[in-house]
Design a protein that fits this description.
CATH topology of the largest domain: Rhomboid-like fold
Low-confidence stretches: none
CATH class of the largest domain: Mainly Alpha
Number of helices: 15
Order of helices and strands: HEEEEHEHHHHHEHHHHEHHHH
Mean pLDDT: 90
Largest sheet: 3 strands, antiparallel
Helix content: 55-70%
Strand content: 5-15%
CATH superfamily of the largest domain: Rhomboid-like
Radius of gyration: 25 Å
Number of strands: 7
């Protein structure tokens, strides 16, 4: 942003905030867990009664150096204007009459309805860029098959994801929304994001750590004999059908085939898992994952031509399908950007599967996705938004699912031990 544009913007913001007024209080949603001002950062005692700003990056103004997250207080609105103009990035503003730090998304409300033509003109350059990157990535997949997986990942993250995102924004008729709805969505989305990131993810991180340890064990074993771990405990179709090793439909879901595979799945599981934990229950995460791994493995077993299958993708797609059901049930209160994000992920994963059909088990993906949706529909009557207490049945199923997944991890460890030592 050019200096003159930034200065003009800060002037408009500071002129809008009249003394004693907090514009977004009337737009805070009622009867939802994130409908509270307490989610906003509290102003320290030393800064109360002053104007101020939270510095977002290293900056130097008038010979004074500021570190990220430091709070700078001044005595007047004019001094605050000078401060905000000189600092590159600001993570929050402080006003003398408000005890909370105002985050950037809540600095200014919508003052008029969105002009569709202007909105599309803003989106168009990013949309075109994403389209060109997607085309380049697909071309690289075709002309350089030796780098297929890397090219596909690059095309997905830098092409497909933004292409779908900006494409949906292009089609969305935001010009039909009244100003009050725009501001209500703005406030709800900001508070929802803060509420979501404030939820504990310790159990989820432990689960991801276990998956990493399993993969490390695979790498150690495969160092002596390539694909030995896959043959030992993954979904090898002949071993299941001919030798009755049905335990492989679960053990395959805690194993991975490569470093990019586990990195991609790990990020996806954390991203979806933290939302599922916050919206419904931590106990349901293991249940959804287990059911989806099983449904994905069964689909792969009977519908895929691949000799072996491995990975947590079926369970992850199940979490996505389950969240789509949850989001639909509570669509009137959950911020709409979450629904857009889930649909975006669904479309991108489907396209990713089509482009990488040579090495991606689409049957497992589809089976896991359908399993998650089916479980969501079964649980529909009992689903509650961010309940303070999990129902006894759900808790019991969650503990059982955790026990089964733990047993699968132990089984993989035993099989790797047999061939490794």
């Amino acid at each position: 942003m050019r200096d003159e544009e930034k200065s003009s913007r800060e002037i408009r913001i500071l002129e809008f905030w009249k003394e004693g007024e907090v514009w977004f209080r009337d737009h805070i949603p009622d009867a939802v867990p994130w409908g509270t001002e307490s989610l906003l950062r509290e102003v320290p005692e030393s800064a109360r009664g002053h104007y101020g700003a939270v510095v977002g990056s290293y900056a130097k103004v008038d010979g004074q150096s500021y570190e990220p997250d430091s709070i700078v207080i001044v005595e007047s609105r004019e001094q605050l204007r000078q401060l905000t103009t000189g600092i590159g990035k600001i993570d929050g503003l402080i006003f003398p009459w408000y005890e909370r730090v105002v985050p950037p998304n809540l600095w200014m409300p919508y003052r008029k309805k969105i002009d569709m033509q202007e909105n599309r003109a803003r989106i168009q350059p990013a949309l075109l860029k994403a389209f060109l990157i997607t085309c380049a990535g697909v071309a690289a997949c075709y002309y350089f098959p030796e780098f297929l997986f890397i090219a596909l990942l690059a095309a997905t993250f830098y092409g497909l994801y933004p292409l779908v995102q900006y494409g949906t924004e292009w089609l969305r008729r935001v010009d039909k929304l009244p100003v009050a709805d725009l501001n209500g969505r703005l406030v709800s989305a900001d508070l929802f994001g803060k509420w979501l990131t404030g939820k504990s993810t310790t159990g989820l991180k432990v689960a991801l750590g276990v998956l990493v340890l399993v993969f490390v064990g695979q790498v150690l074993v495969d160092g002596n004999q390539r694909f030995a771990s896959i043959e030992a405990a993954a979904l090898v179709k002949t071993e299941v059908k001919q030798n009755g090793e049905w335990w492989r439909i679960v053990t395959a879901g805690v194993m991975h085939g490569s470093i990019p595979h586990i990195l991609f799945n790990g990020m996806a599981l954390f991203s979806l898992g933290r939302v599922l934990i916050a919206l419904v229950s931590p106990a349901l995460l293991s249940s959804v994952f287990l059911v989806s791994v099983i449904s994905g493995s069964l689909a792969s077993l009977y519908l895929s031509q691949a000799e072996a299958s491995v990975g947590a993708s079926g369970g992850i797609l199940g979490c996505l399908g389950f969240l789509l059901v949850v989001n639909h049930k509570f669509r009137h209160v959950i911020p709409r950007y979450l629904n857009a994000s889930l649909i975006q992920s669904t479309i991108v994963i489907a396209l990713f599967g089509l482009l990488g059909a040579g090495f991606i088990d689409n049957a497992a993906h589809a089976g896991g996705f359908i399993g998650g949706i089916a479980l969501g529909l079964i649980c529909w009557p009992w689903l509650r938004l961010a309940p303070t207490k999990t129902r006894s049945v759900g808790l019991a199923f969650g503990l059982f699912s955790t026990a089964v997944i733990t047993a699968a991890v132990v089984k993989v460890g035993m099989e790797l031990w047999k061939i490794g030592f």
